Amino acid sequence: MLRGWRTFFLLPVLATVLALSAPACAMDVALALSQSSGPHRQFLEALQRSVTPLSHHIADGGSVDEGLNTPVLEQADVIVAVGARATEEILKKFRGPILSVLVSRAQHRSLIAAFPDAELSAMVLDHPAARHMRLASAVAPNVRTVGLIIGPDSLDLEKVFSTAAADSGVSLLSRRIGTVEDLLPQLEQLLQASDALLMIPDPIVASQASARTILLTSYRYRKPILAYSQAYVQAGALAAVYSSPEDVAGDFAAWLRTAGPESLSQPLVLNPVRFSVAVNRQVARSLGLDVPSDTELMERIAGTRKK
């Protein structure tokens, strides 16, 4: 019996659409969710809206909270695990190619470390450094120096962001931390020396306690935060470029249109193509910033509109 998302009426629609054409290279793709509600439901509903005739069959693999559909998952050519929790459960119980979606790069690395022999690929949520820097230039054009806190899991990104900052005409000032206890002193040094603070989803920096410290301290210094999620903006960051569940569904559908049995023969990491922006207009007003409309920001970040 199909469980978890049968009430979404997704699979009957997908099955009808996908059955229109099924060449020899068609794959059986099973979707397994961490939760049958929230962002994972949004991903599924958006996938339904974005699907056009494909050559693959998509089946319900269930969800962690309501039960995984073992027979479907065992027969799949590819398992798509939606969220870190589903990915971990799938890795414990099943072999074969797995594509993890709605996960961060740090979560993907952690799963690879825990399951080194797995055939695990990911469609990560982390956006290219250039997008973050374009966002900074668009929402705060007077920013000349951007501060960045680097945790142990983000050391390889320091040079990437430094190059992206230089390409955008700003300087990057980074500070490395090894523990949560290092955060506040390094944060205060950064805020004193920089015009804005850029946050990336490093596990130490992204914890709830760390986020609270960062938001309160930046507010005291009156320095804008440029973040990576809509929730961070709602909590008090100035702006963010991020992937919504709808963005990820669109990227997944686009990938699936050209995917074949060999697409995941070697593990790979797929970066986001689609993106969204969020702006806290109240924070912008308090900082005296006249931030462009969301539409203009999207164009600026995509590089289709000049300053």
TrEMBL record:
UniProt xrefs under Pfam families: ABC_sub_bind
Signal found in the keyword field: yes
Residues in the signal sequence: 1-26
Keyword terms, alphabetized: Signal
Keyword Transport: no
PANTHER family in the record: ABC TRANSPORTER, SUBSTRATE-BINDING LIPOPROTEIN, ABC TRANSPORTER, SUBSTRATE-BINDING LIPOPROTEIN-RELATED
Protein name, as recorded: ABC transporter substrate-binding protein
Organism: Parazoarcus communis
